[in-house]
């Protein structure tokens, strides 16, 4: 019993002590009890009691640690019941404590037998009348008692909010008027552990009455879950019980009598008799045919035999194209389509007559506004079927798709070209006009030194001018019948030799000029005369008997020799083009009407003429030697063929795509080619890139007669057209083959007059300066600087 008294003292002290260490210790014990792995921990008797207390608290859930200790004490007392072997003395002592006291006087506490102070479970107090009053100790239910589900002390504060007790250590009073102490709250670490180790049934709520954490049982949690899910709270309740069939669905025909109805029950209907008579009368009059005629039956049979195919039977639905545009909706009706439109929308008599006279296709509207007194008087729309059909046809035959509109600035599509002012120098103005020829000036050429200009015209004369002053210094008449078609200087500074073609004759001459010294004149004459000795003593190619030679080399006569014309070469047809080789010993001539002998190569040092082509596909228009390599280019009407003079084979066929090639020129670097045509086009070719034109330019309204590159290293080229203009271009060819040529039109020169639809016929560049000379059909030659 002494052990019990000690426990009672501890019971009175525990509720008043709110030590955080004890609470934390209790929490950690609970945590450690879940691990069940305390092999290193040795518990004494007190620790065992505490563990039992914790087990009791886990089973009851709402009692304090002190109540658990009382339950343990009571459990120990209940376990002290002696057996038969313990003796009668212990049994008698137990009976004394268990017997109920006898009540002698009603309303007065019975007298108890004297027992020891240590064994008394009551105390004697005086009441208000001065009498004795026995106050018994409260019996705490233990683990083995039947009152383990008893609730803790109820808070009797009523409707008073718990916020009023925030400043007090208690939260209310129980039924006996005792203070209910506030449950201890853990520190930050305990709150963290509470958030990590959530006990079973934890809700995070607080009981309003007790202030303790509100934990729910499994049954209560299941009830809350079912309510949240919209289910019936009672799991055993069946919301859809089986229906009880009060009537069967089987019909059983069980007539009361199977006898037929008597005739006396039949009453004929007069209304039906009238309808029958109407049908009979209609059949007699032929308005109703009881049987279909044979023709109609045959037609129906044929229609039944016809097979109709469903075009859309196997059509599978497809997702709408993201670029699909839905069909536009019809516009809403206006005032003129109303059944009661305003007066200003109604047509007059003249407007109605005019509308009726027009054809349906020419009418602005397919209807005329009409006015009706009421909506029920409006007739059906006569054009509804036609209107719907046209609408369906529009939707079927006019599919729509959304196309993104490109917002592109037109100026951004143009190539970014440098400004012409940045590409100077190039010719811009006419400096000198050379007049003296009668008729057209067909050809011009500047000598390699850049001081003399040679011209040839329709008057059959060749004239030599001082380039800067425009003064004529020499002239010779080669023919009175034929025009001088072309003049070209020999491309060498060690001589002063000019070649000119008039009709079928080619003349080689040494003109007199202020810059020509006697030694230079003699050297030039020796070069021309050297071929005569070779022709006499050298080895000539034998000519077949009866075959005409390719050309005849001879002296022109005393009169022309005195004027400086030293050699005349006669070929088979009229010569239009002369082109010198870069070394000056060979030159090629082209006679477009010469057929097989249209192209000839002449050797000056041997006085020899050769026909390189036995058969040429197409009519030859012009020819030229490559400026660096042993290549020979021949242009027909549509193509330009390149031949290797060493290997004597065809190397390349350039296809400009022009209808009729007029002339071409090769860039000094030898990798690019420029072609002019009579169909107003200028075509740039990159020989290393393709046989098709790299760029096509159209800057003239008439045919282009001639095109020339500058030979002095300047990135310039020019063309001459029948519209009387010259177009100057900046054409730079980079050394890097990965870069494209830069072609920029910089200037259009106007000065020549158009005569009989002929403008500028020939053009030539100065060998060093950015100057050019043009020959016009107006009988003049002009120097542009």
From TrEMBL:
The keyword Cytoplasm does not apply. WD repeats lie at residues 434-475. Residues 35-89 have a biased composition (Acidic residues). Residues 109-119 have a biased composition (Basic and acidic residues). Transmembrane segments: none annotated. Pfam families: BOP1NT, WD40. Keywords: Nucleus, Repeat, Ribosome biogenesis, rRNA processing, WD repeat. The keyword Repeat applies. It is found in: Nucleus, Nucleolus; Nucleus, Nucleoplasm. Residues 165-427 form the BOP1 N-terminal domain. Component of the NOP7 complex, which is required for maturation of the 25S and 5.8S ribosomal RNAs and formation of the 60S ribosome. Component of the NOP7 complex, composed of ERB1, NOP7 and YTM1. Within the NOP7 complex ERB1 appears to interact directly with NOP7 and YTM1. The NOP7 complex also associates with the 66S pre-ribosome. Belongs to the WD repeat BOP1/ERB1 family. This is Ribosome biogenesis protein ERB1. The gene is ERB1.
């Amino acid at each position: 019993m002494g052990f019990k008294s000690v426990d009672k003292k501890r019971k009175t002290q525990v509720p008043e002590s709110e030590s955080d260490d004890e609470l934390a210790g209790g929490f950690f014990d609970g945590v450690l009890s879940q691990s069940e792995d305390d092999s290193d921990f040795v518990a004494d008797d007190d620790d065992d009691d505490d563990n039992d207390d914790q087990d009791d608290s886990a089973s009851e859930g709402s009692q304090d640690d002190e109540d658990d200790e009382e339950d343990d004490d009571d459990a120990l007392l209940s376990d002290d019941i002696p057996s038969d072997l313990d003796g009668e003395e212990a049994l008698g002592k137990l009976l004394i404590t268990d017997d109920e006291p006898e009540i002698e006087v009603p309303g007065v506490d019975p007298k108890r037998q004297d027992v020891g102070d240590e064994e008394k479970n009551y105390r004697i107090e005086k009441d208000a009348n001065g009498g004795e009053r026995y106050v018994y100790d409260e019996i705490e239910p233990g683990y083995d008692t039947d009152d383990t589900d008893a609730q803790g002390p109820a808070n009797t504060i009523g409707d008073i909010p718990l916020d009023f007790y925030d400043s007090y250590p208690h939260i209310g009073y129980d039924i006996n008027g005792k203070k209910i102490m506030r449950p201890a709250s853990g520190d930050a670490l305990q709150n963290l552990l509470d958030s990590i180790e959530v006990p079973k049934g934890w809700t995070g709520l607080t009981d309003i009455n007790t202030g303790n954490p509100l934990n729910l049982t499994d049954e209560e949690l299941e009830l809350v879950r079912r309510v949240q899910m919209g289910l019936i709270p009672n799991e055993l309740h069946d919301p859809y019980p089986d229906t009880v069939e009060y009537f069967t669905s089987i019909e059983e025909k069980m007539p009361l009598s199977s006898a037929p109805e008597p005739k006396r029950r039949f009453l004929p209907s007069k209304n039906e008799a009238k309808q029958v008579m109407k049908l009979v009368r209609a059949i007699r009059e032929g308005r109703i045919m009881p049987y279909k005629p044979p023709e109609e039956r045959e037609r129906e049979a044929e229609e039944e035999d016809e097979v109709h195919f469903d075009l859309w039977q196997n059509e599978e639905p497809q997702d709408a194209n993201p670029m699909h545009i839905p069909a536009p909706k019809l516009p809403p009706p206006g005032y003129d389509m109303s059944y009661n439109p305003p007066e200003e929308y109604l047509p007059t008599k003249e407007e109605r007559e005019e509308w009726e006279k027009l054809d349906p296709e020419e009418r602005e509207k397919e209807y005329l506004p009409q006015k009706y007194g009421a909506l029920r008087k409006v007739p059906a729309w006569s054009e509804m079927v036609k209107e719907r059909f046209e609408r369906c046809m529009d939707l079927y035959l006019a599919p729509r798709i959304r196309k993104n509109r490109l917002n592109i600035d037109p100026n951004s599509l143009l190539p970014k070209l440098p400004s012409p002012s940045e590409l100077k120098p190039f010719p811009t103005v006419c400096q000198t006009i050379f007049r003296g020829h009668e008729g057209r000036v067909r050809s011009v050429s500047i000598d390699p030194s850049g001081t003399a200009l040679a011209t040839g015209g329709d008057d059959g004369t060749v004239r030599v001018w001082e380039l800067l002053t425009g003064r004529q210094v020499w002239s010779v008449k080669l023919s009175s019948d034929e025009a001088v078609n072309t003049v070209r200087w020999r491309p060498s500074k060690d001589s002063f030799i000019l070649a000119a073609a008039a009709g079928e004759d080619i003349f080689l001459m040494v003109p007199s000029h202020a810059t020509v010294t006697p030694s230079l004149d003699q050297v030039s004459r020796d070069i021309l005369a050297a071929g005569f000795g070779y022709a006499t003593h050298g080895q000539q190619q034998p000519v077949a008997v009866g075959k005409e030679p390719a050309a005849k080399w001879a002296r022109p006569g005393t009169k022309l020799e005195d004027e400086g014309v030293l050699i005349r070469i006669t070929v088979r047809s009229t010569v239009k083009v002369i082109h010198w080789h870069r070394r000056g010993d060979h030159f090629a001539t082209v006679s477009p009407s010469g057929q097989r002998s249209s192209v000839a190569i002449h050797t000056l040092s041997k006085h020899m003429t050769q026909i390189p082509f036995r058969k040429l596909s197409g009519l030859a228009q012009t020819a030229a030697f490559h400026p660096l390599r042993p290549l020979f280019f021949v242009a027909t009407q549509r193509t330009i063929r390149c031949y290797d003079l060493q290997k004597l084979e065809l190397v390349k066929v350039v296809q400009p795509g022009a209808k009729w090639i007029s002339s071409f020129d090769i860039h000094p670097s030898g990798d690019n080619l420029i072609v002019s045509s009579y169909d107003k086009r200028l075509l740039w070719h990159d020989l290393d890139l393709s046989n098709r034109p790299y760029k096509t330019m159209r800057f003239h309204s008439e045919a282009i007669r001639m095109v020339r590159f500058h030979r002095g290293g300047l990135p310039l080229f020019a063309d001459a057209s029948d519209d009387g203009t010259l177009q100057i271009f900046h054409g730079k060819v980079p050394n890097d083959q990965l870069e494209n040529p830069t072609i920029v039109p910089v200037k259009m020169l106007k000065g020549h007059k158009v005569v009989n639809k002929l403008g500028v016929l020939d053009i030539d560049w100065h060998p060093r300066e950015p100057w050019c000379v043009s020959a016009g059909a107006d009988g003049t030659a002009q120097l542009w600087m």
